[in-house]
Amino acid sequence: MSPKKIMCLFDVDGTLTKARQTIDPAFDEFIQTKIKPLCTLGVVGGSDFKKIAEQLNGDDMIFRFDYVFPENGLVQFKFGKEVGRQSIQKFMGEEKLQTIINFSLGYLAKVVLPVKRGTFIEFRSGMLNICPIGRSCSQEERDSFEKYDKEFQVRQTMIDVLKKKFPDIGLSYAIGGQISFDVFPHGWDKTYCLRHLENEGFDEIHFFGDKTDEGGNDHEIFNDPRTIGHKVTSPEDTRKQLVQLFDL
Ligand code: M1P
């Protein structure tokens, strides 16, 4: 009997790295030297490619991980080559897109926070990223917002308002990080990347993620029947679970 073809598919923030930080060099080496010989490596993040590459030691991470899926897999790299990308713009059309952008900008203009910075909506290939504090905040401001949001639910409140205001616009909302939330058409969550793995002959796809609860951006893929879900609490926990999985 030939050995099972196994894939380990990792979320980034909270799973391979601390939120928006770079991967710990010892953990990176562990993955590349101990895990890569045993399985195929994949990464699926909510962030765009630029951010994922920064966190995983540069653009050549597309050669160190076999499959790389930024923006939930709306952009796809296989063995170091881009093989496809989705466009939210084409899919939704300008009118609907502007409806949501304009309403969100108006809503955010009225939100009062301890501090507010710039870049409140980031337009990506396959999604919008909405950030009440503004993406240009410092690390310290980012950490403070996360605490403030835990107490005052700024992001969840805005998501509830958007859902109520636009029940039929066909958009889903997911909180994947510390300061923002992602907005994308229904079904364009992280399970989107699985369609690019369906014909690749894997016997098992092990998914590792931290935001697996409802509303978190790992929820759908963690519960998808096509994956074996591993809930982790930190990069250290991911390492522990890999050691257990492969009996190292
Ligand atoms: O990878 C998880 C999330 O990382 C970032 O979140 P934040 O800036 O809020 O910490 C964003 O890139 C977000 O899109 C992504 O889902």
UniProtKB/TrEMBL annotation:
Metabolic or biological pathway, per its Swiss-Prot or TrEMBL entry: Nucleotide-sugar biosynthesis; GDP-alpha-D-mannose biosynthesis; alpha-D-mannose 1-phosphate from D-fructose 6-phosphate: step 2/2
Primary localization: cytoplasm
Record: residues binding alpha-D-mannose 1-phosphate: R20, R124, R135, R142, S180, D182
Residues at the active site: D11, D13
Annotated GO MF terms: metal ion binding; phosphomannomutase activity
Catalyzed reactions per annotation: alpha-D-mannose 1-phosphate = D-mannose 6-phosphate
Subcellular location: Cytoplasm
Cofactor names: Mg(2+)
Residue numbers binding Mg(2+): D11, D13, D210, F222, D224, T227
Record's keyword terms, sorted: Cytoplasm, Isomerase, Magnesium, Metal-binding
Record InterPro entries: HAD-like_sf, HAD-SF_hydro_IIB, HAD_sf, PMM, PMM_cap
Functional summary from the UniProt entry: Involved in the synthesis of the GDP-mannose and dolichol-phosphate-mannose required for a number of critical mannosyl transfer reactions.
Protein name per UniProt: Phosphomannomutase
Entry EC no(s): 5.4.2.8
Enzyme class: isomerase
GO BP terms in the entry: GDP-mannose biosynthetic process; mannose metabolic process; protein N-linked glycosylation
GO CC field: cytosol
Summary of subunit composition and partner proteins: Homodimer.
SUPFAM superfamilies found in the cross-reference section: HAD-like (SSF56784)
